[in-house]
Amino acid sequence: MTRKIKGVVKDTDRHGNVRVYFRPTEGPKVRLHEPYDSAEFHEELACARLGLPYKKASDQADGPEISKIRRGSFGWLTENYLSRAPMADSTRAQKRRVLTAIGDETCLSKSGTPLRHMNYNGLTRKHIALLRDQKRDKVEAANHRVKALSALFVWAIDEEFMTENPASSVKKFKGNAGGHHTWTDMELEQFEDRHPKGTKARLAYTIFRYTGLRISDVARFGKQHLYWRNITVDDETGDTEKVQFFRIKTFKETGAKEPVWIDMPVLPPLAEALAEADSDHLTFLISDHGKPFSVKGLGNRMRKWYDEAGLKHCSSHGIRKADAVIAAESGATANQLLSMFGWVNIKQAQRYTRAANRRKLAETGVHSLLGTKKVGQSKS
Asked: What share of the chain is helix, strand, coil (3-state, %, to 5)?
């Protein structure tokens, strides 16, 4: 050997052949077979440092399809997970997008070998952090990677494909703790001004605004979810009134063992909009092709409508968050928010009620800075 490389050692067998190894700080030595200091040697060494198997480019001539299903590869693990793990179709589609992007990453290989071709059992906390860091400029996307990988590895442990979760101790990025932007009153008005009543954009917005549903539920929301029932309007006389409700089983709720049902009255603005909607289909929102929107298709169309209103930073989920804020500031309790939005974790609802209470206390308490009882009142 003409040049020393950190971590690389050699010995000579009884036949006088020089053998080259990578010696990690822990664990056994790894034999290196490629010509010393060649490009292939450094690729093999890089794989050894990462604890991943080395595969020559010539061995990958069959293409990504064969490599993807090779037992023991990251691609093989993800395909098994996505096809076998129980989850909602929308969740499966989202996880597939995230895990496919991760599988395409080449940051763990000097030669550009995608992770999907590599052995998943060699992955460590440092590797997961590096995969996360590839999306450092997009905090939410980076955190989604950690979340998706952790869920994958938890499943793999249950299936006895792995013994530990290398993503469990990887921290998520801070800086966007609130997630999707919550629409302000002015932004709600801005959308309404741009998309008047009678337009498909306004109908979609109205459904989001007055149901609090997720986009996966809005896409399939239709007349079959509406019904009428009598409610008591006067406890003393027992008088009742016929009121329209909507009842829908939510498509997905994080942390829920079973689907959550939403059962709420149809508010007047929503009733007005639905009365004018096309009733020939099972969904209120229909694409230009006369068919129900897919979740992705509706998301793309909503994005177009938001952009047309000059709300490029807003999203459909942000309307749902605005609904929760409005409800909490109007006096809704945490338990009421749970029923309205289909949440299963009381802490999620309490975030909104606490924020609403802080705002009310600030509004009523600010006069103390002036030593008065009410804002604007002169000191006596």
From this structure: 45, 10, 40
84: enclosing H helix or E strand: helix 74-84
Which backbone phi and psi does 4 adopt, to 5 degrees? Answer: -80, 140
Contact residues for 191 (Cβ-Cβ < 8 A; gap 6+): 205, 305, 306, 309, 311, 314
Closest CA to 198 of 276, 308, 266, 271: 276
- What's 63-177's CATH class? mainly alpha
- The pLDDT tens digits of the residues spanning 15-66 come to 777 889 988 877 788 888 888 887 778 777 877 776 666 665 544 433 344 3
Asked if 221 and 213 touch (Cβ cutoff 8 Å), the reply is yes
H or E element that contains 48: helix 39-50
CA 356/CA 321 separation, integer angstroms: 13
Lowest mean pLDDT among 94-103, 183-192, 367-376: 367-376
Tokens linked to 175: 């800086």
Residue 59 per-residue DSSP state: G
**Dihedral over alpha carbons 288, 290, 293, 294 (to 10 degrees):** -110
Element (H, E) at 231: strand 226-234
Question: Hey, which residues does 239 pair with through a beta bridge?
Answer: 234
Q: Are residues 295 and 215 in contact, defined by beta-carbon separation less than 8 angstroms?
A: yes
Q: Contact 117/64 with Cβ under 8 angstroms?
A: yes
* Contact in structure between 3 and 38 (CB atoms under 8 Å): no
Residues whose CB falls within 8 Å of the CB of residue 357, separated by 6 or more in sequence, listed in order: none
In this structure, what token pair is assigned to residue 184?
A: 């302000």
What DSSP state is assigned to residue 20?
A: E
Return the domain boundaries, the chain: 1-58, 63-177, 185-314
> Hey, what's the torsion of the CAs at 113, 119, 124, 128, to 10 degrees?
50
In 3D space, the residue among 253, 258, 272, 267 whose CA is nearest the CA of residue 214 turns out to be: 253
Terminal Cα distance for the chain, rounded:
92
**Domain 185-314: top CATH class:** mainly alpha
- Inter-residue contact 343 to 349 (CB < 8 Å): yes
Nearest to 212 by CA among 143, 264, 150: 264
Other beta carbons within 10 angstroms of residue 267's beta carbon come to 14
**Model pTM greater than 0.70?**
no
